[in-house]
């Protein structure tokens, strides 16, 4: 079986850092109830060892606000925040290779400049799905994503099926 990925995308939608933190916290607290592979999350680092020192407490709203604030886009000169580009966060579950999951969140983007991308949640499932191989479990993850983030569209896809061939 090919590795699975959940993708949820929505058009520009202005949201404050607090609104994004609330959505992120609700999402991650419910996600952990779907499978133990989603129980721990870490900020990405230069190495596995470095990342494992950067545990994220998904129950700590202040920690999520700090993480979102670090993920703001800033101007090259002066470091001024570019408000309409929102917030970006990349996390990793710290699991062994076959149980590794990754999470990328981009929220609060409201710029209508073409080519800047969209607000999104992309959740990479582990290769060894365990209980997530049950369609009802995967559907629950998708339902949680839809409820917490209110995307325009979302789905679970085979990464291999999404790759184009030349």
Compact summary:
This protein has 166 residues and is α+β, with helices and mostly antiparallel strands. Helices cover 29% and strands 22% of the residues.
What share of the residues lie within helices? 25-40%
**Element order: H for helix, E for strand:** EHEHEHEEEHEH
Number of strands: 7
The profile of the biggest β sheet is:
7 strands, antiparallel
Could you tell me the radius of gyration in angstroms? 16 Å
Find the structural class using helix and strand composition: alpha+beta
What general outline do the C-alpha atoms trace? globular
Q: Could you give the order of strands across the largest sheet? A: 3-2-4-5-6-1-7
Alpha carbon gap, first and last residue: 22 Å
- Portion of residues in beta strands equals 15-25%
Average pLDDT works out at 89
Number of helices: 5
Low-confidence stretches: none
Topology diagram in text:
Elements: E1 4-10, H1 17-31, E2 41-43, H2 48-51, E3 55-56, H3 61-70, E4 87-92, E5 102-107, E6 119-124, H4 135-149, E7 153-158, H5 159-162
Explain the overall architecture.
With about 170 residues, this protein is of the alpha+beta class. The chain has 5 helices and 7 strands, in the order βαβαβαβββαβα. It has helices at about 15-30, 50, 60-70, 135-150, 160; strands at about 5-10, 40-45, 55, 85-90, 100-105, 120-125, 155-160. Helix 1 packs across helix 3 and helix 1 runs antiparallel to helix 4. The chain is globular and about 45 Å long. The mean pLDDT is about 90.
Key phrases:
single chain; 166 residues; alpha+beta; 29% helix
């Amino acid at each position: 079986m090919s590795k699975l990925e959940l993708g949820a995308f929505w058009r520009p939608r202005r949201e404050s850092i607090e609104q994004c933190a609330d959505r992120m916290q609700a999402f991650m607290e419910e996600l952990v109830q779907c499978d133990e592979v989603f129980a721990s999350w870490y900020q990405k680092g230069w190495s596995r060892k470095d990342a494992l020192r950067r545990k994220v407490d998904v129950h700590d709203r202040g920690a999520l606000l700090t993480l979102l604030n670090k993920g703001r886009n800033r101007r090259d000169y002066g470091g001024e925040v570019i408000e309409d580009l929102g917030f970006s966060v990349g996390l990793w579950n710290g699991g062994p290779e076959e149980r590794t999951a990754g999470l990328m969140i981009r929220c609060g983007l409201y710029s209508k400049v073409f080519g800047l991308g969209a607000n999104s949640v992309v959740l990479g499932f582990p290769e060894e799905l365990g209980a997530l191989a049950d369609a009802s479990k995967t559907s629950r993850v998708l339902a949680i994503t839809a409820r917490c983030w209110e995307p325009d569209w979302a789905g679970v896809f085979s990464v291999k099926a999404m790759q184009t061939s030349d």
